[in-house]
Amino acid sequence: MDLSNAVHSETAHAPPISEAGAKRGGLKDGWKRLLESKTGALGLLLLVIIILMSVAAPLIAPHDPAKANMAGKLLPPAWEAGGNADHLLGTDGLGRDIWSRIIYGSRISLIVGFCSVVISGFIGIALGLLAGYYGRWIDAAIMRVVDAFLAIPTILFMMLFMLVLGEGVGTLIFVIGITGWVSYARMIRSEVLSVRERNYVQAAKVIGTGDFRVMRTHILPNVLSSFIVLSTLSVGRVIISEAALSFLGLGIQPPEVSWGGMLSDGRQYLATSWWVATFPGLVITITVLAIIFVGDWLRDWLDPKLK
């Protein structure tokens, strides 16, 4: 019996597997691990609250985030002397309500974070699959491009592109997306180099399955768990990158509100009005930590090496 017939015979006599049952078991295991992980549950709860806050911003924000009121500038938080209950976290140098600006700023940070990761992930998966599956000169060419990107700090690439292309949310998403694919490509390539040598992949090639179908059906599903974990953690990195560019004046421009822009506005008041920069920085820290906690939980759930 040749290898082709052996593959068909083995497949035909394999015990049937319920896909729905497998999904239920996987989800059940995921929720069990989430309940066992205090940091994972806390991170997911915080992330859900932040997402809901951004979606419902027009409903829950007490003030217009862009409306200036010079008569009420630099009011301290409500619990401090001179504070106003109408401005829970105080006001900035133009009298704008900090709590309202934080709520609206979450929209920009989350949109930039998730959309940039989608772009980076798509590019990284495509190039990583090609490099790992075909190897040889294709692998060498893609890896040399990766080395070139790694040789220069990413923030310098971002600053250069922003200076050339101009400011704006769309430009920022595009710039962060096309400069952040390197980590995905390297990770996917290393995973593919291992998966492509497994027996079921070799058997699929023997029976004449095309390269595209092999990559889509047999290789991609086996590297998606690592990609999901890495992309989750990368959202936090992208939020920090957006804040850094906005802090430098190259990211989101007024009247749009971003957490990085709020930090930039508050740096001149650090010695006299600590709340102007402290609260945006605290929200960035909490959001990034929440995403990291969720990423750790996903890694524990999806990575078979840790089960």
Question: What descriptors fit this protein?
Answer:
single chain, 307 residues, mainly alpha, MetI-like fold, elongated, disordered N terminus
Description:
This protein is mainly alpha-helical and 307 residues long. The protein has a single domain, classed as MetI-like fold. It is 72% helix and 0% strand. It is elongated. It starts with a helix and ends in a 5-residue tail after the last helix. The N terminus is likely disordered.
What's the short story on this structure?
The protein contains 13 helices and no strands. With about 300 residues, it is an all-alpha fold.
Secondary-structure element order, N to C: HHHHHHHHHHHHH
Instruction: Quickly name the level 1 CATH class.
Output: Mainly Alpha
SSE class: mainly alpha
**How would you characterize the largest beta sheet?**
none
Unreliable stretches covering 5 or more consecutive residues: 1-25
Write the layout of secondary structure elements.
Layout (H helix, E strand, L loop, with lengths): L2 H10 L6 H18 L1 H18 L1 H4 L37 H37 L1 H16 L2 H12 L3 H11 L2 H14 L3 H8 L4 H37 L11 H8 L8 H28 L5
Helix pairs in contact: 2-13, 3-5, 3-13, 5-6, 5-8, 5-9, 5-11, 7-8, 9-11, 10-11, 11-12, 11-13, 12-13
